[in-house]
Design the sequence.
């Protein structure tokens, strides 16, 4: 289960560091990976990717998760959940 969030932020680099410092998702039960990165093309964008072991783990986290405490103003967002049925070696 992949949860992908691409957000347009206020445009300053503090937004990225605030999100990284305040995000507790990685420690949640069932979270396999979390990546927060500044967009290499558009510095006002921050990309977040979460990898979950199951839909149930993601739902359980969403029930208790609170938004990060940050001064980040989100201008726009694109949130997608991807369900991956198969993974394997790239070559």
Sequence:
């Amino acid at each position: 289960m992949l949860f992908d969030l691409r957000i347009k932020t206020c445009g300053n680099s503090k937004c990225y560091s605030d999100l990284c410092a305040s995000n507790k998702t990685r420690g949640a039960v069932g979270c396999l990976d979390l990546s927060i990165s500044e967009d290499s093309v558009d510095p006002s964008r921050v990309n977040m990717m979460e990898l979950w072991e199951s839909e149930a783990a993601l739902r359980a986290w969403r029930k208790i998760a609170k938004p990060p405490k940050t001064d980040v103003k989100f201008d726009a967002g694109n949130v997608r959940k991807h369900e991956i049925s198969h993974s394997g070696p790239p070559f």
Q: What stands out?
A: The longest strand covers residues 31-38. The chain has a mean pLDDT of 75.
